[in-house]
């Protein structure tokens, strides 16, 4: 009976423990033990985005959209677009520096509203722009015929060279030009009633310094000063050293029109200083009209032979010079020779760099003026021939 009671008690304990085993939390096994598992539906798919991570992660390869890139003090600067340069007119004293940026007109679409800095103006060139040290070497010969009742023949032989010296900015260098000239005179005839005389020769030895800054995209300048010795080398006084200069502002009004205005100081007995300037009009690449005082020039391209351009021109010039001389009577004096010249010429510009000119002209309003005041001579009008070569 005792055994039966123990069997009944064990059976009751097993029946009571079955619901408890069924409610126990069971963790899945890492090993597939072959048990049949209920299928699980996959989670809905969303656009993938990286989950935040607290460990190290690779740096992004570029700036996020809509943000600026980080500043890198060692990064190479972005190089601006290279500027274009205007070819200076080699026959014009008002030409811009060959290292200046192309002037941008104040009114690029015609005369409208003034703009101090027009939009879209190109950047100036960098400081690292190369400069050619020797700019140009030139020589010129001029002959004035000794004809007329009051004859005076003149021959001028001139030579010079221009060098570029960096100054502040590479595109605005100093242009240094040493030069030398000899002037041969035939006349005037000296008589007891007319004690006019000139020595057989006078000389110029000078150095010229010029600067052509491009102040803004539309405003430039032509500045220069020349110091030299002008004498027959038989006399030397304080007047043998002459200082001359020029200062002009050049405004690019439109793409084809520039306006120049300023003064020129020539340090002569008759005239010391006079206003200078006018209009420079380039309606097309085949024409350039410099309506400028005191040296106007109207030029047009005639033809092109191979790589050489041939231009013809009409020009005006206030000619002459001033020197200290030894008079026929033995004393020292200071003399001017002044004239006005109108010429017709041809000039060529070769791709190799050679520039040649030949012209014929008429010379009038001629004057010989002495500092002593006695006498003033007016030689007869004459003709002029001139030839020049530069490289």
Keywords:
14-stranded antiparallel beta barrel; 391 residues; disordered N terminus; globular; Porin; 5% helix; mainly beta
Please report the total strand number as a whole number.
14
Average of the residue pLDDT scores: 75
Number of helices: 1
Please describe the biggest sheet, giving its number of strands, its sense, and whether it closes into a barrel. Answer: 14 strands, antiparallel, barrel
Beta-strand fraction estimate: over 45%
Strand order, biggest sheet?
1-2-3-4-5-6-7-8-9-10-11-12-13-14
If you compute it from the alpha carbons, what radius of gyration comes out, rounded to the nearest whole angstrom? 44 Å
Any idea of the CATH class of the domain at 140-390?
Mainly Beta
Tell me, briefly, the overall form: globular
Low-confidence stretches: 1-5, 7-101, 112-127
The CATH topology annotation of the domain at 140-390 reads as Porin
Work out the helicity level.
under 10%
Question: How far from one another are the termini?
Answer: 142 Å
* Helix and strand composition category: mainly beta
Order of helices and strands: HEEEEEEEEEEEEEE
CATH architecture of the domain at 140-390: Beta Barrel
Could you describe the 3D structure shown?
This protein has 391 residues and is mainly beta. It has a domain at 140-390: Porin (Beta Barrel). It is built from one helix and 14 strands; from the N terminus they run αββββββββββββββ. It has one helix at residues 2-22; strands at 134-144, 153-167, 169-186, 201-211, 219-231, 241-254, 257-265, 273-284, 287-293, 297-305, 308-326, 332-350, 355-370, 382-390. Strands 1-2-3-4-5-6-7-8-9-10-11-12-13-14 form a 14-stranded antiparallel beta barrel. The longest helix has 21 residues, at 2-22. The chain is globular. The N and C termini lie far apart (142 Å). Mean pLDDT is 75; it is low at 1-5, 7-101 and 112-127.
């Amino acid at each position: 009976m005792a055994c039966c009671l123990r069997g009944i008690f064990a059976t009751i304990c097993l029946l009571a423990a079955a619901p408890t085993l069924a409610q126990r939390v069971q963790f899945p096994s890492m090993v597939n033990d072959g048990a049949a598992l209920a299928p699980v539906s996959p989670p809905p798919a969303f656009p993938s985005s990286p989950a935040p991570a607290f460990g190290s992660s690779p740096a992004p390869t570029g700036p996020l959209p809509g943000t600026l890139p980080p500043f890198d003090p060692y990064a190479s600067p972005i190089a601006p677009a290279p500027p274009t340069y205007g070819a200076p007119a080699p026959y014009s004293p008002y030409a811009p520096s060959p290292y200046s940026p192309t002037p941008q007109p104040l009114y690029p679409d015609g005369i409208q509203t003034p703009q101090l800095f027009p939009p879209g103006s190109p950047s100036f060139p960098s400081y690292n722009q190369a400069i050619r040290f020797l700019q140009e070497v030139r020589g010129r010969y001029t002959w004035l015929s000794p004809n007329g009742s009051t004859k005076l023949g003149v021959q001028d032989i001139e030579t010079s060279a221009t060098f570029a010296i960096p100054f502040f900015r590479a595109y605005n260098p100093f242009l240094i030009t040493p030069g030398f000239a000899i002037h041969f005179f035939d006349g005037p005839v000296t008589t007891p009633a007319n004690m006019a005389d000139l020595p057989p020769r006078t000389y110029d030895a000078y150095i010229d310094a010029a600067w052509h800054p491009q102040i803004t995209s539309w405003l430039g300048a032509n500045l220069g000063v020349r110091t030299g010795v002008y004498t027959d080398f038989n006399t030397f006084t304080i007047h043998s050293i002459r200082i001359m200069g020029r200062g002009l502002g050049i405004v690019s009004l439109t793409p084809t029109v520039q306006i120049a205005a300023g003064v020129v100081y020539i340090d002569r007995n008759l005239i010391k200083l006079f206003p200078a300037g006018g209009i420079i009009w380039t309606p097309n690449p085949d024409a350039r009209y410099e309506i400028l005082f005191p040296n106007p020039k109207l030029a047009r391209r005639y033809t092109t032979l191979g790589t050489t351009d041939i231009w013809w021109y009409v020009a005006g010039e206030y000619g002459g010079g001033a020197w200290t001389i030894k008079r026929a009577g033995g004393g020292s004096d200071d003399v001017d020779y002044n004239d006005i010249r109108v010429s017709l010429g041809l000039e060529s510009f070769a791709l190799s760099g050679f520039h040649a000119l030949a012209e014929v002209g008429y010379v009038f309003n001629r004057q010989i003026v002495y500092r002593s005041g006695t006498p003033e001579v007016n030689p007869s009008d004459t003709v002029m021939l001139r030839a020049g070569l530069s490289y």
